[in-house]
Write a structure and sequence with these properties.
Strands 2, 4, 5, 6, 9, 10 and 11 form a seven-stranded mixed β-sheet that branches. The chain has a four-stranded antiparallel β-sheet with strand order 1-3-8-7, with no helix packed on it. The chain is an all-beta fold and 121 residues long.
Amino acid sequence: VQLVESGGGSVQAGGSLRLSCVVSGWIAGDYCLAWFRQAPGQEREGVAHIYTSDHSTVYADSAKGRFTISDDSSKNTVYLQMNSLKPEDTAMYYCVLERFCYGFSTGRYNYWGQGTQVTVS
């Protein structure tokens, strides 16, 4: 399984970014794709996840109302649209995959991308 993130960058507070995660090599059908982030010196935290079977979504409190997770099965891609970005959103963002969603329990997800950096100033 390979997860490749893109779309990170540097933006000013109030700006927007859209992260993408392309999934390849997964042959078990539907899956859960989560976005986690990790700021320097802090633990990884969950941001949002989506289950491709029914497109159900869950958001961390920090993401509610500002971020939107979605998937395009035709492209094997999951997106994270981030609006109204704040300096505290600065972190490395990782897409993470597993057969089912396990909330934001880091240890329950086995497949991780390399991350894409988001910097908000």
